[in-house]
Amino acid sequence: MSEREIIARGEQSGERVDQLPAVVPAVDIFENENEILLHVDLPGVQKDDISINIDNGKLALSAARYLPTAGAQAWREIADVQFRRTFAVPQSVDLNNVRAELKNGVLSLHLRKSEAAGPRQIEITTS
């Protein structure tokens, strides 16, 4: 499957985050023979405020950023926000081998391909 086959679409409903303005996070997608790798830009998001669900061929990602406030607000341009994005997951992905890591505001999702989806040599027989 190529990276173009992963199509962003839809959105997911949440609970507390429904009251926040929703934005679509920037995503880079890379593919090699072993995995599909997504880098999702989630600045200021804490690990506990991220939800990743894979169901019925769709990967739904939602996250919320809550910035701490103290004192009287004099000026504010960076608000609390909800990030939401959904991707179609190719059948070649091994759903039991999906890893996620958050570092410096970037969520890396490693979607490992199943061995059955990898390249293979077809033996030709003669009769």
Automatic annotation (TrEMBL):
Coiled coil: none annotated. Pfam families: HSP20. Residues 18-127 form the SHSP domain. SUPFAM superfamilies: HSP20-like chaperones. Belongs to the small heat shock protein (HSP20) family. This is Hsp20/alpha crystallin family protein.
